[in-house]
Write a structure and sequence with these properties.
- By secondary structure, this protein is an alpha/beta fold.
- It has one domain (about 1-445).
- It is built from 10 helices and 24 strands.
- Strands 1, 4, 7, 8, 10, 11, 13, 15, 17, 19, 21 and 23 form a 12-stranded mixed β-sheet that branches. Strands 6-5-9-12-14-16-18-20-22-24 form a 10-stranded mixed β-sheet. A two-stranded antiparallel sheet has the order 2-3.
- The chain is globular, with a radius of gyration of 21 Å.
Amino acid sequence: MSVITTGGTTLHGRTLAGFSEEAVRALSAARNEPDWMLEFRLEAWKLFQSMPWPQPDDEAWRRTRLTGFQLEKFQSVALPGPEQSRQDLSPRLRTELEEMESAASLIFQDGGVLYRRADADLAAQGVIFTDLQTALQEHPEQVRKHFMVEAVTPDRNKFTALHAALWDTGTFIYVPRNVRVTLPLQVVLNQATAGVGGYHHTLLVTEEGAEVTVVDDLLGGQDGLQSSVVELLLGRNSVVRYMNLQDLDHSAWNFLTGRAVLREDTDLRWIQVSWGSRLTKAFLTLDMVGSGAHGELLGLYFPTGRQHIDHQTLQLHRVPHCFSDLLFNGALKDRARSVYMGVIKVFPGAQKTDAFQRNGNLILDETARADSIPGLEIEADDVRCTHAATAAQVEEEYVFYLMARGLTRPQAERMIVQGFFQEVLDRVPVESVRTKLERVIERKIGG
């Protein structure tokens, strides 16, 4: 493995080692990318330079400060190491593969593919499940048509512009018309090298009537940065189950921008799990552009220590007869803080909209803090939209009841937290994904 250290540039009064136009060119050349991707990266780099950093008076960042964040600290991986066989993987990575039955698996580590496996019948059905660099070479028109064009564009925010310029790893998933992938497709991103900046991308495209489940699993990242983008493009009448499980090291900075575009009669269930990182700022959007679309956004988070977890969601209803539902439940310990800000926006003419939004917070220590700001913007007159937010401490009588039956206080609290999360778990439709999530929750609560 090697890292980019080429050149430097001055940005807002700071010199960024390894962050320059020359570094962008070096990254693209090292991966032998087509000319159009180099131009795309360079335009994104110019955009990144022109955009201001988030300020404390920006509404989206008012409750989340970037104190201590220094972009120039994070090196970018240029040349990844060789791929490995399953038996050569670390015990942690083998455990990740074993926890969930899957139709195919991809493991990324430090800028490249470490391991890959796929059932033979996937390719026979026309399913594409590969890394983005391979897709650039073998399916260039597909990638060019969809990559940061329709869902998440580079100008979405400062971090999407940075991502567009420096993206390194990524998954391209394409499911043809009426193809049903019964077992999940699993992606593991492991930032094994400390102090590295990673820029992972997920691009999922389904055609009419397709069905697929995809799980993204993010690990590692000691003293590092992850600035990722998720794009889910659902074709008419397709069904998608997607889980983003973020369990990065508690010293990592994590920025995520994800958007799902739902066309006519599509069905999406997105599960967002935020366990790790020093700070997470996630922008998540359900964009319903086709009548009859059905979207659910489920979230779990459990910050401890001094972790800061911030989710900002949008449920966009552009057309009539769509349904969306959001449920985010979080527990907080020690001096941790969570922020939830969500908006249901109903555009003019989007009649018969049915939309819900609920955020619940379980406070386990008096020093923990949860901010919840749900909101509605309604521009149609025949809709049903509701929102709710709660924050409460664990009732002492519940703890006493369990302790009276032989449990210790930590055991009692863990049982209460597990029950609090069960409401979300019950809505995970894929058994193997639910089983994996249950094991992850047990580890987190037990820890």
